[in-house]
Every structure is written in C-alpha cells, then in structure tokens.
Amino acid sequence: MSSFSTDPADLDPNDPAGEVTLRAEAYRNWGRWGEDDVLGTLNFIDSAKRTQAARLVTEGITVSLGQEFNEDGPQKGWKKRNNPVHTMTGTGLDAERSLDAFPHGIGGADDLIMMPLQCSTQWDGLGHIFDRGYAWNGRRAGDVVTTQGDGVTGIEKAASVIVSRGVLLDMGRHLRPETGELEDGYAITEEDLDSCIAAQGASSAVGRGDILLVRTGQLARVRREGWGDYAGGPAPGLSITTARWLYRSEIAAIATDTWGFEVRPNEFHESFQPLHQIVIPNMGLTVGEMWDLERIGQACAERGRFDFLLSAQPLPITGAVGSPINPIATL
C-alpha cells in the first residue's frame, strides 16, 4: 500500500483531483468483503466486538448524542436541506371540542414531520457520495442510486449493525484546554489524533470495529453564539491527510460534532469535501455528522475514561442514502 505525506503543508492546494486520486486508490477497500458487499467498514463490527463493548457498561448511565430535530435547527436550505417542520394532525383541543368523535370519551393526538434525512444528527450512507461516477465497491453510481433511491446500499441494510465500542477523542479539550474548542478551519492531523490518544490514556486506544467520535467543540460554540454558518461554513475537522490513519485503524465508522466531518474550508482551491470522496465510496467508511458530543465529552472527562457501548441505528428507510439517528452511549 502506498503512503503519502501526513503533513497538510505538503498538499498541493491547486491539485485536489490528483491528491484525492492518490489516496482513493491507496486506501480503497473494493472487493475486501466480496463483490456483493453493502456494508463496507461496518463489516469490522462482529460479535466479539459487541461483546467487548457490552462489558464496558458498569454504571448503566445512558447519554444521548443526538441533537434535537426542530424548526430552530442549523440548516440554511442548501440542496433543499431545511429544518424539520413538525405539524400536529390531532390535538388536545380537538379532543375537548369533539367528545363524540370517538366512543366513551377517548381522545388522542397525532403528528407528522417533514424533513430532509440529513438535517440534524445523522449517518451518511454508502450511497451518499460518489468518486468520479463510481459508488462503494466499484459499482457505477447510476446503477446504485436512481430516482427510486439506493437499491444496493440503502441505509436499511445497516439497521441492525451499528452497535459497537464507541471511543471519544476530545480534540477540543486536548488541543485547546483553555477553551475546549478548536477554531474554525483547524485541520486535525494524524499527529493530533495520536497525541490525543496518548494523553487520554488506554481507554482511548482505537482499533478494528470501533466507532470513533471526534469532538471539536464547534457545537458548543454555535450554541452560545448562534448557528451562523455551522451548516456548510468554516469548521474544524479532519485533514485529508488523515485518510491513511482512518484506513489503517480499521474503524467501523466515524462521527463528529460538525456539519461536514472534514475541515472547512477544504484544503484545496475550488474543492468540495475531498475526504468524503475518499472514505465513503472508496474506503466504505460510514460517516456521522452533527452529533452532540458535549454531554458525553463531560462524562468522559469526569471519569478519565473514553470508551463505552454505543448504539447508533439508522432508521430502516428503504433506499435512503442517509438517516437521522439518536445515538446512545451507555457507560
């Protein structure tokens, strides 16, 4: 397997296509789990890994890692990504005023919600991003995702899979102990990831089948100051040079507290989400975004322990290329 510089300073900012191509081909997992595979790196989660994760539960404390889904969310309408619209179709007032509508005085409320599947805490499915016309495992993008949805790697394929050992790397607290928050535009490197593991200790060791959570602290900042450009604007995140680290670690999935997982602005002129282009269609890595890592960050810091049982199931929406979730960490 080829190896490239892990120093962002060595990137050619004028050649995103070349830099992406080198890493996409070096860290590609096509065929690793057979030509019919639909799970990618989620295959690293096996029964032994889940058993290991279950043994981490010693207190029975649960922590939600999901942001709320409401009209005050972060979305700004890019690619029709709007915030959820919640509508009541039956209310208590209806029940009071229509006592004869149902027998013996029973009443009830109902509601519906309209929202993009990636408007708040969510997974990017393997059909979400393509590389030069190809989807995960070397399939032609048009053969995978059509107007009927993702008929091959739809998010429902992972509905019972994503239960594993979660590991939090609190990059905000590690690199900026005075604030606990990385500044927008900060590119997290391999060296940063390794130094955080060393500083946090043995419970932060990252390995095969783990779900890696990277806290930057950006969500805490926008909650104080307002959403601003959280959705699509400048943010701390992973450098494209971490592709090697992500590949070698054999993690099952990764999630961050930012809109886009990787550093923004991206590290090239005229580029858009180049690390996505490497890790999703080539590596087969499931990516989570807009996770709320504040409470789990505090809980881990208080205990000096950074691993836990993590359950983060997507909704089994047939053919979807992403899914809203409410991940639960159990300590």
Describe this structure in words.
This protein is of the alpha/beta class and 331 residues long. It folds into 2 domains: 10-77 and 117-330, Putative cyclase (Glucose Oxidase, domain 1), CATH 3.50.30.50; 82-114, no CATH class. The chain has helices at residues 16-26, 47-54, 92-97, 141-144, 171-175, 190-200, 218-225, 243-249, 274-283, 294-303, and strands at residues 62-64, 85-90, 110-114, 122-124, 145-146, 149-150, 163-170, 187-188, 211-215, 237-238, 253-256, 286-289, 307-311, 322-324, 328-330. A hairpin with a 2-residue loop joins strand 5 and strand 6. Helix 1 (16-26) packs parallel to helix 9 (274-283). The longest helix is centred in the first third of the chain and has 11 residues, at 16-26.
Structural class label: alpha/beta
The CATH topology assignment of the largest domain is Glucose Oxidase, domain 1
**Helix percent band:** 10-25%
Report the sheet with the most strands, covering strand number, pairing sense and barrel closure: 9 strands, mixed
CATH superfamily membership of the largest domain: Putative cyclase
Rg for CA atoms: 21 Å
Strand order of the largest sheet: 1-15-13-7-9-11-12-4-14
Give the total of domains.
2
Could you tell me the strand content as a percent range? 15-25%
> Which stretches are low in confidence, meaning pLDDT under 50 for 5 or more residues running?
none
Q: Span between N and C termini?
A: 37 Å
The 3D shape can be described as globular
Q: Give the CATH class of the largest domain.
A: Alpha Beta
Reported CATH architecture of the largest domain: 3-Layer(bba) Sandwich
H/E element order: HHEEHEEHEEEHEHEHEHEHEHEEE
The tally of strands reads: 15
Mean pLDDT: 96
Annotation field: number of helices: 10
